[in-house]
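Re: beginner question about structure tokens

> Can someone show what the tokenized structure looks like for a real chain? I only ever see the sequence side.

Sure, here's an example I had lying around. Input first:
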Amino acid sequence: MVSCGSIDGASLDPVALASLAESVAVSGYGWTVPLDRKSYNILVVEEPSVRPDEMEQSVRWAISTMIDYPIADANVSWMKIPTEKLLPNRAPHIYVVASRREVIDQYRQVFKQAKL
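And the corresponding structure tokens:
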């Protein structure tokens, strides 16, 4: 199920979020909230050739000099770029999205206060 809604105004608060959830009739589903463009970095890096359980640490190390805040303060996620068929001789790369932990924690707190 996909539902979409928006909140007028510049900030997201628990009351507005709870009202939005009620108006689009969603409960128990995941949410996607777009961040302000200045709140995150999208980077392309060569995919580390490490075991899956070492991937997060390796990605963090790879981008640590590419962001302007300590890597310990970052939320980091990544996905493979599917280029094997088009560029078989090129090393595999990944998209990495990094955001300050405080930005994500603020949203997490709003969702918690809205009981979502």
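Each token stands for a local structural state, so reading them left to right follows the chain. The CA atoms of residues 81 and 87 lie 11 Å apart.
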